[in-house]
């Protein structure tokens, strides 16, 4: 296991923190342009992928279900979300985006330039490697992709451990 205080680990943790902070800053700004809070925008974005029960939204966003109820209430008042019975269990209500909610979620997603611009400077192979490394960090399945750096990514003079990429 990598020591937590080695300089490389410290730098990577700081860089991840910077990326997260910049992402949330831009996300909050994009949400505000649509008169939404960041939390409302995150819930709407999540629901744009698939309708979900409140408990699952809370678990995914790591917050209290009562907070989600209030957020969904406000989104429903604005006509962006509706509650509907779960076809698999009619006792459960799903929160689902309306057509206006789907459009707003798409506009929000399309307005987030922060990540797209820097990622656009990476090759498809580099983006694939980054995705798989992030999945591995999060304990997600690697989906059968080899997590070794592809040959075109390694620069001459790299250490045998592949510590440096161009």
List keywords for this structure.
166 residues, mainly alpha, three-stranded antiparallel beta sheet, 7 helices, 3 strands, 10% strand, globular, disordered C terminus
Could you characterize the architecture of this molecule?
With 166 residues, this protein is mainly α. 57% of the residues lie in helices and 10% in strands. It is built from seven helices and three strands, in the order H-H-E-H-H-E-E-H-H-H. The chain has helices at 7-33, 38-49, 54-61, 65-77, 99-110, 113-120, 124-137; strands at residues 52-53, 81-86, 89-97. The protein has a three-stranded antiparallel β-sheet. Helix 3 (54-61) crosses helix 4. The chain starts with 6 loop residues before the first helix and ends in a 29-residue tail after the last helix. Residues 145-166 have low confidence and may be disordered.
Q: Count the DSSP helices.
A: 7
The strand order across the widest sheet is 1-3-2
**N-C termini distance:** 25 Å
Order of helices and strands: HHEHHEEHHH
Query: How many β strands by DSSP?
Result: 3
Calculate the mean pLDDT score and round it.
83
Specify the structural class.
Answer: mainly alpha
Instruction: Name the poorly predicted regions.
Output: 145-166
């Amino acid at each position: 296991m990598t020591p937590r205080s080695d300089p490389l680990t410290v730098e990577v943790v700081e860089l991840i923190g910077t990326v997260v902070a910049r992402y949330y800053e831009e996300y909050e700004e994009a949400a505000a342009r649509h008169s939404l809070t960041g939390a409302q925008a995150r819930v709407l974005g999540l629901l744009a992928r698939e309708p979900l029960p409140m408990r699952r939204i809370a678990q995914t966003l790591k917050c209290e279900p009562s907070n989600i109820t209030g957020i969904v209430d406000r989104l429903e008042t604005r006509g962006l979300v509706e509650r509907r019975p779960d076809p698999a269990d009619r006792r459960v209500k799903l929160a689902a985006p309306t057509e206006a909610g789907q459009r707003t979620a798409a506009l929000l997603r399309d307005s987030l330039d922060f990540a797209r611009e820097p990622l656009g400077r990476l090759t498809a192979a580099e983006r694939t490697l980054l995705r798989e490394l992030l999945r591995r960090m999060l304990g997600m399945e690697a989906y059968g992709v080899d997590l070794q750096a592809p040959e075109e990514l390694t620069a001459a003079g790299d250490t045998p451990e592949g510590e440096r990429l161009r």
